[in-house]
Please model this.
Amino acid sequence: MDKKFDIQSYMTKGVERIVSDALRTTMRDPRESAYMLKFAASSRKASKKRAAAEKQGEHIPPFLIASITSSCNLHCAGCYSRCNNATTDIEPVDQLSRDEWRKIFEEARDLGVSFILLAGGEPMLRWDVISEAAKMPEILFPIFTNGTFMSAKYMELFDEHRNLVPVISIEGDKDKTDSRRGEGVYDKLISAMDSLAERGLIFGASVTVTTENFAEVTSEKFIRELSDRGCKLVIYVEYVSVTEESTDLVLSDEQRDHLIAEVARVRQAHEEMVFVSFPGDEKSSGGCIAAGRGFFHINSHGGAEPCPFSPYSDVNVRDTSLKEAMHSEFFRRLTENDILADDHKGGCVLFEKRDLVEQQFDKDL
Model:
């Protein structure tokens, strides 16, 4: 990895672009634009905090991924969380409480974290945690949900607290979505989108991009349908195989280049929407941005992990501060030993180099 690469500057520019795009897409909605203007000011303050820390030799990532539950009502084909046993059908045991998550959110805010992505399992099963997140307008909380728990109670919460943004998972058309997520799921999530739009609430869509749907989900038809329904954010997540049996779903280099090009195209063609691609073009970011470079992951039990796709942890936020967790010995090894560098096949370096990741994890941590 290029030691001269300025990850702080790169991530700050990325945050500024997302915030700028969000302001543009909400200009016609007075309530939404009013919140986004306040959030933009908070984001600038957070960026200054991170820059000040950087000058002191301490890197603070602007993003955090929080898996707030191990429970989910669906059994999506190829789900990384179930394959890693991070999501199960048994009653959750020893998960972080509402108060513990609130402490994490507060410390993240004080450190200069601007975005906390709430995931699971199905995060909307944790009303207690999401209602705590609502109290922190300085942080934007995208909620990655399957869209099947969009109750009137949640609609009221989202209406009152605009820092909560539901991001609904969709795989393409009805056949592709139901094939991966279960029969009838597509109709439920479309109904959820329509209900959000009717209330004037901002929402997004999360698309797991595979060899089976990559052309469809970047097509003008698909994007136009989402836009017409009121969707303001599309997050493309490249499929990461966590078992050898599902590697056929992983994008080829050619398909990945096509995805990168199409995301650039739709950003120009659809200024009414925000588009984010993950992991995106790692060459432009000096390598993978996990393990605290741009973000890290906290699982439902408090373990600090490089990424949801890389479930290894040497520290738990119950036992230490968030600040200390993001600078764990394991994260340091991944960064300093160039495990996160971009010279690899596939979209996820942590999966591609999993043997090296495990070697670093097993070295007397």
In short: The longest strand covers residues 164-169. Residues 26 and 32 are 6 Å apart (CA to CA). The radius of gyration is 19 Å.
